Amino acid sequence: MTVGYRQRKAGLAPFYICQGPREVDRIEKGYCQRVSGYSLDKAIGALLVETVTPLALEVALNVQQELQSRWDEADRLRRLQVDRARYESELARRRFLRVDPDNRLVAASLEAEWNSKLHALSEAEQNYERQCQTDQLKISTVQREQVLALATNFPQLWNDPVTADPERKRMVRLLIEDVTIRKGEQVQLDVRFRGGMSKTLMLPRPLSYCETHMQNPAMVAEMDRLLDNYNYADVARIPNENGFKTGDGLPLTSPAVGYIRTAYGLKSRFDRLRERGLLTTFEIARRCSVSTNTISDWRRKSRIRAHAINDRNQFLFEDPGPNPPKKYARRTSGNRLHGRPVNRQYEA
Fold it and tell me: Is residue 235 a contact partner of residue 226, using CB atoms and an 8 Å limit?
């Protein structure tokens, strides 16, 4: 199986995927099996902490041998650089000594080249000595202490938050030969240590990302109750004031309320208000024999009772009953203009 990573809010989350030989699965699913790696890695780490004691000496020796071989290889490469610089310096010296002293231009050029090679040789030797001292210091103190800590205080080193994941992987490679994963109702891990010892672990099947980020049932029930009387903005505000968070640990927002309502099959506010007999804008406009613009004007002036169904300025209206508001009230004035009575219409 190969390992992959997904970016989550808490950081990179590992998963293991098998591209296996099962042609049917590859055609239908694109892979043989796939397992979330967080719980598996945690179980392997706990197993190492539990069983590392019998293998501590072998691990320490392997680590020390690896460090020594790397230092020897680096020392060999640096020594080759010094030898090459010394050879080029000697070659430049011989060229200068063979030149005719009367040919001053060539002699000056060869002398400058010899000085340059001597300077390069001096820098290479100084760098070699400096690196040797540095590497010797690391091996004799820092690295040796880490080897001893690995042999005696492995649990503390493994669980230390400062220990980087690449270092944990290197320790795992030194301890474990391979791990076989079988995914069924449970996940079976067959762990084979270096040296022949094996161990089998049975783990619960890891939950999916959606399952691990399910919403609080109490919050969902509270939202279901609030949707009877509040729009989405208030349904988000009230649970936030009571300390509820989403499955991702974030405050509720109006879009989050809509998403949760749909995901959990809660009845929409529109359906709840319709069940209570509230009317749409067109229905109440026909009931009152006016235009929808007039209904909107009456709502702003509180002449009819309206209930918001969302945060996009959409409403349902209570039935005005047998005496709905009237658009106009006629009033006749006795005043005359140019000898004719004037009838004016005023909005009620």
Answer: yes
Give the bridge partners for 189, in sequence order.
181, 201
On whether both 179 and 65 belong to a single domain, the answer is yes
The interaxial angle of helices 56-98 and 165-175, nearest 10 deg, is 110
pLDDT digits (tens, 9 = 90+) for 202-226: 888 776 666 666 778 888 888 888 8
Q: Specify whether 151 is located in the same domain as 244.
A: no
Q: Can you tell me the distance from the alpha carbon of 348 to that of 345, in angstroms, rounded to the nearest whole number?
A: 9
Q: What is the pTM of this model?
A: 0.40
Same domain for 156 and 172, yes or no, is yes
Provide the domain count of the chain. 4
> From CA 204, how far away is CA 76, in angstroms rounded?
51
- By the 8 A CB rule, do 303 and 324 touch? no
Query: Concatenated DSSP letters for 317-328?
Result: E---TTS---SE
In a domain, 274, yes or no: no
